[in-house]
Amino acid sequence: MTEDDTIKNQPEPTAPDTPELSGDQEAITPQISAEDAARLVSEPTGWTPEPEIKPEDPPVEVIEKKPPTRFQLFLRKALIVLGVAVLVFLGGFLTDHFVRYKPLADEMKETHAQLEDANLAVSDLEVENDSLIALNQKAEEEIADLKDEVSAVRANALFYQVLVDVNAARIAIFLDDSEGAQAALAYTQSRIEELQPAIEVVEPNSTISLLARLELVVSGLDRDKDTSLIDLELLTKSLLELEPYLALE
């Protein structure tokens, strides 16, 4: 028997049976990815990665601190003095502001408020003055109207008094009482003259004709009573023509 026949007659090796895992054991068993498995197969056992070499830092150059120069010391002192001066100036400014200017500002505000109150008071007085002026004008207009009414009443009274005088003189002439007729016409002239402004408004020349007619009546009482009676009738007619303008309704 040859060596080759011996090898062929030997039984083939079988892989060991893998025990089956329960559910809990499967959960505990770590899961290895395909990449990790390939890396483990390709890398030899016991291999460790080489440590990464970091570049060394450059050496730090030590700089020696030089002492300050005289100019630097002078400049530092000058800045300190200047800072103190600024602080003193600022403190003095604030003190002066609160001691002197703040009261003046408050007083100015108060004065301004008083001025505004005075302006409001002046405005109120102007409004009141305008109202009083309007009332005064209205009162003056009413007084003027009253004066016109009084003048009209006075003219009306004088007009009818003149008519009474003329009628009384006519009655006296009918009774052959010349003295009575003269007494009745004693104040007629003055009354007609007082009526002149009212008469001139409606008939500018009526006053002159009335006074002339009255003079004829008075002068003819002693000479010709009939003529005086005619003149009295004409005087009465002229007066009655003026009645619509001088009589009050």
Descriptive account of the structure:
It is built from eight helices and no strands. With 249 residues, it is mostly helical. Helix 7 packs antiparallel against helix 8. It is rod-shaped and about 160 Å long.
Q: How would you summarize what this structure contains?
A:
The chain is mostly helical and 249 residues long. Helices cover 74% and strands 0% of the residues.
Question: Topology of this protein?
Answer:
Layout: H1 3-9, H2 23-28, H3 34-42, H4 70-174, H5 178-184, H6 188-202, H7 206-219, H8 225-246
Helix pairs in contact: 4-5, 4-6, 4-8, 6-7, 7-8
Decide which structural class fits the backbone.
mainly alpha
The total of helices stands at 8
Q: Tell me about the biggest sheet?
A: none
Shape: rod-shaped
Order of helices and strands: HHHHHHHH
The CATH first-level class of the domain at 148-246 comes to: Mainly Alpha
Radius of gyration: 72 Å
Mean pLDDT: 76
Q: Which CATH architecture of the domain at 148-246?
A: Up-down Bundle
